[in-house]
């Protein structure tokens, strides 16, 4: 019939709406929690004077869904751009020494974090300089990943923001064979991780083609496709470049080969 201090615990949730006036100040300055009574079942206990807990802090909100504006992928190389003004927005609910939001960024495959790609906790200013992360060696071709950013302070955890990206094909390999002084065959071979069959590619023979060609071509059972060039100029140097595209046009890293045509 009695409540024992430090033995019985009670949870209470309190949320601040983001559209409430001055919510940033409320968050960073903390609250004073005042309890005047406790009801438990059919019993109610009233305190002679309110029991207060000062400097009671909530967790920082999750970053907005558009905080990462773009994620550009070439093969397994990733670059990101961040929302303009993001650091200034977080500064509004930051109080040096007492309420300092920190962010932990993780990359997940199948909802499992890749330890080597986790960074933080760190300040918002350090987070937004991460525009060209060195993730490539830990990412697999043609795989979907999730980026997760968790907010926290020394007072506890806050919200979590998530977005996703997909990697492209591993780069193809190319070889060439001179057929005559004015003709040459270029063979494109897909990487082992690429499925083959009908595959979209972007290719250009620099020195001959003014612009790249985008087309879907049928690779054979060896994952090879041959382009036959004619009308080439003898003693002229050319560079062939190709990238393999996903259905959503994510390019692989380009592969290229240079050659010089022989005399007539």
Q: How is this structure best described in words?
A:
This protein is mainly beta and 264 residues long. Helices cover 6% and strands 47% of the residues. The chain has helices at 23-29, 86-91, 124-127; strands spanning 31-40, 43-56, 68-74, 77-82, 102-109, 112-113, 119-122, 144-153, 156-166, 173-180, 183-189, 198-206, 213-218, 224-229, 237-245, 255-260. The strands form five sheets. Strands 5, 6, 7, 8 and 9 form a five-stranded antiparallel β-sheet that branches. Strands 13-12-15-16 form a four-stranded antiparallel β-sheet, with no helix packed on it. The longest helix has 7 residues, at 23-29. It is elongated. The N and C termini lie far apart (106 Å).
Summary tags:
single chain; about 260 residues; mainly beta; 5-stranded antiparallel β-sheet; 4-stranded antiparallel β-sheet; 3 helices; 16 strands; about 5% helix; elongated
What proportion of the residues is helical, as a percent range?
Answer: under 10%
Total number of beta strands: 16
Q: What is the overall pLDDT average?
A: 90
Kindly provide the radius of gyration, computed on alpha-carbon positions and rounded to a whole number of angstroms: 29 Å
Kindly report the oligomeric state of this protein: single chain
Count of alpha and pi helical runs: 3
What is the H-and-E element order?
HEEEEHEEEHEEEEEEEEE
């Amino acid at each position: 019939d009695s409540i024992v201090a430090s033995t019985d615990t009670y949870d209470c949730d309190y949320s601040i709406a983001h559209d409430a006036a001055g919510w940033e100040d409320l968050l960073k300055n903390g609250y004073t929690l005042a309890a005047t009574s406790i009801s438990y079942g059919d019993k109610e206990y009233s305190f002679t004077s309110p029991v207060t807990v000062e400097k009671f802090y909530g967790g920082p909100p999750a970053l907005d869904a558009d905080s990462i504006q773009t994620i550009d992928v070439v093969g397994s190389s990733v670059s990101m751009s961040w929302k303009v003004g993001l650091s200034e927005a977080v500064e509004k609910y930051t109080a040096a020494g007492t309420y300092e939001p920190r962010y932990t960024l993780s990359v997940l495959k199948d909802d499992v974090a890749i330890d080597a790609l986790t960074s933080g906790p760190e300040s918002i200013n350090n987070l937004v300089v991460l525009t060209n992360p060195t993730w490539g060696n830990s990412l697999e071709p043609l795989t979907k990943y999730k980026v997760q950013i968790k907010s926290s302070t020394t007072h506890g955890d806050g919200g979590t923001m998530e977005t996703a990206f997909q990697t492209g094909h591993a780069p193809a390999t190319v070889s060439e064979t001179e057929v005559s002084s004015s003709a040459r065959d270029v063979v494109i071979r897909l990487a082992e991780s690429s499925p083959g069959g009908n595959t979209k590619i972007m290719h250009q023979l620099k020195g001959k083609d003014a612009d790249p060609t985008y087309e879907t071509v049928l690779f054979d059972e060896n994952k090879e496709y041959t382009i036959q060039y004619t009308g080439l100029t003898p003693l002229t140097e050319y560079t062939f470049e190709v990238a393999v595209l996903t259905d959503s046009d994510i390019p692989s890293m380009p592969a290229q080969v240079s050659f010089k045509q022989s005399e007539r």
